[in-house]
From TrEMBL:
Keyword annotations from UniProtKB, A to Z: Cell membrane, Membrane, Transmembrane, Transmembrane helix
Topological category with respect to the lipid bilayer: Multi-pass membrane protein
Organism: Micromonospora gifhornensis
TM region positions: 48-75, 87-110, 116-134, 146-169, 175-194, 264-287, 299-318, 338-356, 368-386, 392-413
Protein name: Membrane protein involved in the export of O-antigen and teichoic acid
Domain of life from the UniProt record: Bacteria
This protein's record includes keyword Transmembrane: yes
Amino acid sequence: MTQTTGSDTSRVRLGAAGAAVTLATLVTNALAYVVPVLGARRLSAADLGALATVLALGAIAAVPGFGLQIAVAAHRARWGGDGAGRLGLRTAALTGAVTLALAPLLTVLLRLPAPLTLLLATTTFATVMAGRWLGELQGDQRFLRLAVAMAVLAAGRYGGLVVGLLLGRGPVTCLLLTTATGLLALPLLARLAAPGTTAISTPGAPAGARDDQPRSAEPGGPVPRRLDARQVSTACAATLAMLAISYADLILARQLLPAADSGAYAVGSVLTKGALWAPQVVTLLVLPRLARGDRRARLVALALITACGAALVAAATIGGELAFRLAGGADYLHLADTAPIFAATGALYAVVFMLVNDRVATGARWPAAPLWVATVGLAVCAALVAPRTVTGVLSCALVTAAVTAATMSWLVFRPSHRRTTQRDRVAAATGQTGVDGDSPHTQTPRTPSRWLP
């Protein structure tokens, strides 16, 4: 009876955490959406184009921040301890320095005002640096604080832009304001991630509970590896690969199709991105457990993501016209029959993204290699084989997503991988060093996880 009650309580807490993270994601997306809407009404076409270009560059430059978050979360969930401070600072500083070094070239090639490209380096530093604290919160499974931190980061990234646009300022002033808000958000994120803080209280959780001691403190346990640049670079490469493959079909459509058809494809890709990002909260919540080799959590997460994708595909099949009317207007209703294909492509990529995160979290070698191969294959198929139509490019994208999902599933669930995972668990329990082709480091026993702070 007590065990059942505890299990029910854990599910309720996890549900609350998932709802909080989902709400934070919605806030982030809403703020990101408000910026171009306000910009279109407050700026001239030339200023809007310059600001939109800089924001796109900022999104690309922020990739190391997402990689840093994944690496820190996986390492902290698996080994505990700290060790992310200096590496996070070096990652943010290096990314900002590279952006600064490229500023003159970007200014000339993209015809941007020099102050915009210079300010981009500072905003990039703040965004990447935030990945350290988000990763600590995610790895410790303090999801309510993570949700607050995500909202704080969103306010930092977009708050200054929104205020500047509402005041009728130009792109330079808007970006200067958002640079200030982004830097001001960093100490708030550090405070939220600090162990023992009481920013959010949890009923039943011990006050000032800490989870920052390295797992090697356990008697007889193996010495955990330190978080290093290789782990961060691997996570960054995986994040970049996921970004590349999810936008490859849209870029190919722009290159291969007539202007009107490429615009129609862009409208349909809204459905793809919706099916892709809708279940990502599941991946975020399960990542710490994936890092510890929790096979049941992997199966549950995969089932949830698959069910969400199936529901979205069914909805797109039934309401294809409504979906295109909402995404682009009545001019695109002739593409309603393709709505389930767009949705299915995004749903398959959602499965791929979860499995790639699993490979990164468990220390697999070259976790993003299948995605790069798939991206090249998609480009070759679309350019040389498929008809130069919306359906032709979309069919290539769907086949690529399906093959990639099947490949990643085989890599994660193949029998040899399951056997070595079991050996690692035995070695971790006995304090011995295991050998695993995909995950060469043993996993030390952890204390029971805390779903809430």
